[in-house]
Amino acid sequence: MEHILSFAGFIAIIPLVLFIVYLGKHLHKNEYVYYGIASIIALAALVLGILEQAGALAFELASIPVVYQLVFQGHLTFALFVLVMFAGAFKNKSPQKITLMRVRREMAILGFIFLVPHAGFLIVTALTAWNPTGTIAFLIMLPLFVTSFPKIRKKLHPLQWRKLHKWAYAAYAFIYAHLLTINLIAQQDTGNLRFVRFGIYTVIFLFYSYLKFQNHILPARTKEKTQKA
Ligand code: HEM
Predict the structure, then answer these.
(1) CA dist 136 to 29, 162, 173, 195, Å?
(2) 178, 181, 195, 203: which to mutate for ligand 1, most atoms within 8 A of CB?
(3) From 131's CA, which of 33, 109, 124, 154 has a CA 20 to 30 Å away?
(4) Rounded distance, CA 211 to CA 97, Å?
(5) Ligand 1, atom 38, residue with closest C-alpha
(6) Each residue of 197-222: pLDDT tens digit?
């Protein structure tokens, strides 16, 4: 069971996609209700995480394995950010892109909200292991998170906003570096399964890069060339 749950990030993508397909409109219309509920859960988890790290909790968080993996070990935030990434990589006007783009902002904001308890719970572990990859991803994402809220977004010029949000690519690179280092250097206790996870993370990021190049970078370059000619 524990081994299966270490793949929770990949598994969680499936119910999330189903949720977006069937309840995406509901999420979009009621985004602040979802943010409110997510923030309450994340805040409670953050407090529990800090208490556990301080040795002040009467039970172990790992005794609630699904919640532990999804919220405290970062798998839910990973699944949400994968969908945010792919929303930007699918071909324009494709059904996948239309479905994901409808709730891209909401997924990114929820992803960041659920990143907080993961980061709060593991920051000491990460920094004492001299692994700042997750922290750097977090710091890059912080201004992106704040400026994702429509009221704040409106205060920025659209070009300024777009330029700022190009930093998301740097955050994706650090997320990959985070998952790579966690699985190759840390987590030696999980045996060879960490190599399987590392392989799946690599396939996901390579596939994302391929789609992004094929559907966006290449057509933009071709357009630029024909305009110059
Ligand atoms: C968007 C940013 C982040 C994402 C998507 C993310 C996601 C994840 C995932 C999915 C894992 C489990 C990897 C696996 O078992 O295959 C993990 C592990 C870990 N993360 Fe993050 N993380 C992020 C940011 C952070 C931050 C900000 C910190 C600390 C400040 C952090 C600290 C850790 C540590 C220490 C582990 C290893 C846990 C262990 O071995 O018990 N992460 N992260």
Answers:
(1) 32, 20, 10, 24
(2) 178
(3) 109
(4) 12
(5) 73
(6) 999 999 999 999 999 999 999 999 99
Mean pLDDT in residue range 140-149 = 98
Task: Give the C-alpha separation, 155 to 152, whole Å.
Answer: 5
**What is the value of pTM for the model shown?**
0.95
Label residue 111 exposed, middle or buried (CB < 10 Å: 0-12, 13-18, 19+).
buried
For residues 110 and 38, is the Cβ–Cβ distance under 8 A? yes
pLDDT of residue 16: 98
Q: Residues with Cβ within 6 A of ligand 1?
A: 6, 9, 73-75, 77-78, 81, 115, 118-119, 122-123, 125-126, 134-135, 137-138, 175, 178-179, 182-183, 186-187, 197
Over residues 19-40, the mean pLDDT reads 98
Tell me which residue range forms the domain holding 175: 2-228
CA 151 / ligand 1 centre spacing (Å): 30
* Collapsed DSSP state (helix, strand, coil) of residue 41: helix
Dihedral (Cα; 2, 3, 8, 10), 10-degree rounding: 180
> What's the structural domain count of the chain?
1
Q: State the average pLDDT for the chain.
A: 95
